[in-house]
Write the C-alpha cells for this entry.
Amino acid sequence: MYLVPGTISMITIKTSEEIEKMKRGGKILSEVLSRVAKACVAGASTEELDRIAKEGIESAGGKPSFLHYQISPEDPQYPSTVCISINDEVVHGLATPNRIIKDGDLVGLDIGMWFPVKDPSDPTGGADGLATDMAATVCVGNVSSEARKLSEATRESLKRGLSVVKDGVWVHEIGKTIEEYLKPMKYGIIKDLCGHGVGHAVHEDPQIPNYHERRARPVKLKAGMCIAIEPMIALGSWRVKQKDDGWTFVTADGSLAAHWEVTIAVTKNGFEMITPWPDISVISTGA
Ligand code: MF3
Ligand code: CO
C-alpha cells in the first residue's frame, strides 16, 4: 500500500477466534498462490493465471479481495484477482490477455482473499469474512543470476524482518532490520510503498515501511495485531513511478524488482504465520 508517514487511524486487535479464521483463510490462500506460481511458465497469459487464482479462491469458499478494490473512491477499481508484476514492475501489475509470461521473466504474484464469505455480493466479504494477503516472486526459466539473487535477498529480508516481531516491539524495528540486512547489497528499498495491518480491511494501520522511516508515528506491536510485511526491492534505485493504467508501479530506472509478502499474527513471544510460505518448489518454474 502507499506509504503516508505520520498517519494512524485504525489499528485492530483480533480475537483468537478471528485469528483462527484468518489462519484457515491463509492456508487456502497459500495453496492457491502455489498453484498460480506453478502455472507461471513461459507462454502462460496473465489472464489465465488470474483465472486460476479466482477459481481457486471461490471454490474454497473465499472471495478475491483485490478485485474491484479502490484505494479511494475517486480512484479506478483494481481489475484482477492477482497482481502480476513482471521484471521492472514492482507491484500492482495487471492480468490481461495480451500479457504473456516469457522465459527469463521475474514475476511477482500478489494475492488477497476474504474468508469465510457468507455473502459473495458484499464487497467487504460479508460480516464474517476476514482478509489475508501474501506475495511471492517466481523466476521463470532461464533467469539471470542477479534476478535470482534479488528475489532470494528480498525473501530473506522478509524473514529477518519477521524475526524481530513480538508484543512490545516498535514497528520501526521491522523496517530497520530489513534495511540493515539489505544495505551491503546496495539494492533499492522501495520507499513509496509499505506493509500494513490486515483483517477487517485489505489495508489497516499500522503502516509498515521496509526501511527505518523516522517520520512515522511510533507504534508498538501488540499481541493480536495481524500484519502483512512486504519488502519490495529493486536491483537499482528505490524510486518508482506509476503507469497510466493508474495501478502498475515500475522502477523509475527500469531495473528489476522483487516482492515477497506474508500475513502474520503478533503473539506475546513472536508471531504466528497466517499465510504459510508457498511451496518452495514454485520459486523457479520451467528451468
Ligand atoms: N499487497 C498489496 C498491497 O498491500 C496488494 C494491493 S491490492 C490492490 O498494496 F488491489 F491494490 F492491488
Ligand atoms: Co499487502
